[in-house]
Amino acid sequence: MFYRPLIFICIGCCACLLAKAQTDSSKAPHNLRSVEVTATKAAAESLVSKAAMPVTIIDRKAIDMMGSRRLDEVLREQTGLAVVNDIKGGSRAVGLQMQGFSSAYTMILIDGQPMIGRNAGDFDLSRITVSDIERIEIVKGASSSLFGSEALAGVINIVTRQSIQKAQALAAFRYGSMNNADATLEGETPINKGKGAAYLSANYYHTDGFSVNPYLTRGATAPPYNSFSLQGRARYALSPASTLSFSGRYAHRRSVSVNSFGKDDLHTSRDVLDEGDMNASLLLNTHFKGGTRMKTQYYLTRYSSDQQTTLTEAGVLNAQNVFTQYLHRAEVQVAKELLHAWSLTAGAGGTLETMNNVNYRDVGNMTGAFGYTQLDWKPRDNFSALAGVRYDHHNNFGGRLNPSIGLRYTPVARITLKASLGTGFKTPDFKERYQIFTNPQQGYTVLGATVLASALKDMQKAGQISEIRPVADLIAQQLKAETSVSYNVGVTVSLPAAIRLDVNGFYHDVHNLINTIQVATKTNYQQVFSYMNLDRAYMTGLEASIGWKPLEGLDVSAGYQLLYAKDRSVTAAIKAGTWPYNTIRNNNTGESRPSVVSDYFGLENRSRHMMNLRVFYEYAPWGITASCRMNYRGKYGFDDANGNRFIDRYDTFVEGYYLLFASLEKKLFNRHLSVQITADNVLGYTDMLMPAQPGRIIMAGISWRFFK
């Protein structure tokens, strides 16, 4: 793998050359606009100062200019991120891929607290409206000791608006293609002369859904749904040293999909899914004499889903899946400024996770405990170091100590060098262990590793199995916990003419990666999937982004990611000539030949190349903002079509594609009134293998902000 060290050597050499070139110009003035981060006093809820690197911030202004409605619409345009479909999880399995890791390895936080509720490991980001988001913080890699070691890919922290200085309210409505409708009401006010504050918002969203499957005569690959969410926050200063805060969120989504396949709609089903998620937290912030700060917090989140599928021609309930999951989390965190240039953050807590589902057998509660310490050292303005260690213990998988370290050095005014190393630890979830689920629309079945043997035996007795693959005997009933080591090395260069360049190389070495694999074939020709550990996999590559402000109000930026994601055991099997890895077959011609290592493309659903280009413009005197954005995702492997258990050139691929987005907004009446029009996927690109990618969507919106 010669390219891995080459990536890091190139970054290091470029950094040294740039540092040399910039030495003479280090005192030159520059006017690079940085992202302003507000509400920084809520340090315990921010990842900016807590993670080693790299951190990306999307502020409220950027979200507004994009015209985004849901969280997935914001994140899909960021460098190194991709919103992907897991076809084996059904039409609703849509998640976020980060640096080659699938959605299951990315932790989603709201104000520093985790959210739950995933489908086939994917967290559906469209569940979250952006109306209440102040900023989004993205930390890549397992480099944070404070926010959990199970996030092998990284952490996305959604920071809601905290600073409330005056009473104001907002009413907004958008409508457009596919009968998409988005309505928001929100209000906030200070309490008792600024001693407290309260915020409340409500959002309603509807879409008719869409279909990109030409064989679906009636219905939708992305089902229509209605969603409603209610969010509230309140804080009050109990004393000059103590503040009590409460936050809560409730959301419900209902989707109904009627699907028909075949001539004359002979096979018709009605699929109804009700989802609800609720979270609440109580936080006490205390400042002691001597500079010690303490945060005491309890957090509860609940996710539930009820899916029913009815065969409409017979009027018979074909399947029902009712699922409820609770997570309780308590934590105490203490922060202290020590000697000059030193600061310490430490904490401990515990979790209790429960689940109720008739499709999961012999399931007990999962409990965990954790403790962490992080030390920050900043002896000079141009140098800082961060070191942390975290211990996580799981009642079923034992414990593990995970260290992390980060360095930041600015040799000259225009150049900053960064490096970090962190380890991760992720235990298998309920579904990977105990799931027994049959997709009612497509007919495939997913079985948890723990119940695989008994479930296959039951299906055989029922006459549902035509073939059991040898790999089924290799799957251990007890999945192992996944561990990883993540490296990041980067350089940031501020060039003349308000140009900023960021280059970052990454390498993730993962042991016992949990991967989905086909273990059997059913008599209806559909697959049976389960989960098994890959002994060792890796994701490595390079990210680069550049920003330029040529004129006042005009911002131009571009980003690129190069990614290699592979399973080392596949490479070893090809070298050893192990069946079935030793043969590559062209199904179109019937020709076969011995396979070589270069035939292996990589893990499924990972693009080798991804790019983005964004142009934002604001003309303040007229109150006008506009944006035009482009995303490119290179081709990626979708399915092993020739049965040799790895993706090669003769397998099924999704070809590379472009998506274009545009928005235009005008503010009137002293910025009380705002009128906006947005266009998503301007070229109307769709693909049957991307069931959640809609065609062209045009939306128009109006909002009124009430303030003095």
In short:
The protein is mainly beta and 708 residues long. Helix content is 8%, strand content 55%.
Specify the biggest β-sheet.
22 strands, antiparallel, barrel
DSSP strand count:
37
If you average the pLDDT, what whole number results? 83
CATH domain class name:
Mainly Beta
State the shape. Answer: globular
How much of the residues is beta strand, in percent? over 45%
The CATH H-level homologous superfamily: TonB-dependent receptor, beta-barrel domain
Give the C-alpha Rg: 26 Å
Secondary structure category: mainly beta
Number of domains: 1
> How many helices does DSSP assign?
6
Which architecture does the CATH hierarchy give at level 2? Beta Barrel
Question: Per CATH, what is the topology?
Answer: Maltoporin, Chain A
**Span between termini:** 62 Å
Percent range of helical residues: under 10%
Uncertain parts: 1-45, 87-92
Task: Describe it.
- The protein has one domain: Maltoporin, Chain A, CATH 2.40.170.
- Helix content is 8%, strand content 55%.
- The protein has a 22-stranded antiparallel barrel. The chain has a five-stranded mixed sheet with strand order 1-6-7-4-5. It has a two-stranded antiparallel sheet with strand order 2-3.
- It is globular and about 70 Å long.
Write the layout of secondary structure elements.
Elements: H1 3-22, E1 55-59, H2 60-66, H3 71-75, E2 81-85, E3 94-98, E4 106-110, E5 113-114, E6 133-140, E7 154-160, E8 168-176, E9 180-191, E10 196-207, E11 216-218, E12 225-239, E13 242-261, E14 267-287, E15 293-311, E16 316-337, E17 342-357, E18 366-380, E19 383-394, E20 398-412, E21 415-426, H4 430-434, E22 436-438, E23 445-447, H5 452-461, E24 465-468, E25 482-495, E26 499-522, E27 527-551, E28 554-567, H6 568-576, E29 583-585, E30 592-594, E31 609-619, E32 624-633, E33 636-639, E34 652-654, E35 657-668, E36 673-680, E37 697-706
Parallel strand pairs: 4-7, 23-27
Antiparallel strand pairs: 1-6, 2-3, 4-5, 6-7, 8-9, 8-37, 9-10, 10-12, 11-13, 12-13, 13-14, 14-15, 15-16, 16-17, 17-18, 18-19, 19-20, 20-21, 21-25, 22-23, 24-26, 25-26, 26-27, 27-28, 28-31, 29-30, 31-32, 32-35, 33-34, 35-36, 36-37
